[in-house]
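Known limitations

Structure tokens in this collection are predictions and should be treated as such. Users comparing against experimental data should check residue numbering before alignment. To illustrate the layout, the record for Mannonate dehydratase is reproduced below. The input appears on top and the generated tokens appear beneath it.
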Amino acid sequence: MNMTWRWYGEGNDNITLDHIRQIPGVMGIVWSLHDKVAGEVWEMERIQEVADQITSKGFSTAVVESVNVHDDIKIGLPTRDKYIDIYIDTIRKLSKVGVKVICYNFMPVFDWTRTELYKELPDGSNALFYEKAAITNHPREMVDRILKGAGDFTMPGWEPERLAKLDELFAAYADVTEEKLFENLKYFLERIIPVCEEVDIKMAIHPDDPAWPIFGLPRIIRSRDTIRRMLDAVDSPYNGLTFCTGSLGTNPENDLPAMIREFHDRIHFAHIRNVKVFDNGDFIEVSHRGRDGSVDIAEVVKAYHENGFTGYVRPDHGRHLWGEEKNCRPGYGLYDRALGVMYLLGVWDSLENAKETK
Ligand code: DNO
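Generated tokens:
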């Protein structure tokens, strides 16, 4: 298990690389060029600049999250080839600075979706919350609430300029069924995976969050069967997964440890976090500790350990603690994620120790 930490970049994150160095066990930085919108060219100088900042503090640059996929690729428009060429250009450039895994998603219009960013928990902290009944047929209201809540912090997949044209975007996706979206993903993968094989970069698709269709938009990476179909469609080790327990864990029918056991050799990046799912389907993000939520995190780590997992891992969203929500990106505060690292490493180390004393 190779522990990493998502960092939004110099001047764009309230947490610095020097802070991150003080969290035990973190070896790599999960990074990106966060000002790039989907479909834009990534210049080599910019890539090199961020990679140098990261390596100068002793961290690895192996994981990039995200290189966002342009909507034209997801919709399957004739312009998609142009955007796939740009994507390939970025893959090639990233391979020159030690990148080994790219995390991306294929969700139409929205990346992760929540209805509230600062829902108070019984202990006085607050966290991202999803209320099923609040998802109506009118995404505008939800989008405005999320963008307002994020304040000055940018959030990948929530670009205000793109979401300003929400009606047009929804209209463009009108004929994109689940089947069509899947075909478009396959088309994209068939073009990029040979390049990934050549430059040794593994693609790791992030599951849909939450794990079901929203606002009538199709979602295709949300269960054991949909994941199996995607992996089989382009059957190369370079076509893999970001296995996110927080996203897949929103549907209690997903047996996460069983899925890890089945897919472990195609999981290149593990996002580990916990959610508490209520009987009515609402859910809130909680601490990483297993008993605080609905995901048995120790069992998840055990499933990785059993399979000798050597891939990259990061604690995912955390609660906002001790008032930090005033000054951090939603879900990406310092404290709860740092506690998460220690919980995950604690479970891992105890499994290692037990193995040694056998
Ligand atoms: C949530 C993240 C996702 C992820 C993208 C990858 O915080 O895990 O936003 O970065 O889906 O493209």
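For this record: The pocket of D-mannose is lined by residues 65-66, 103-105, 111-112, 156-157, 206, 244, 271, 317, 331 (CB under 6 Å). The two ends are 21 Å apart (CA to CA). Please report discrepancies through the issue tracker.
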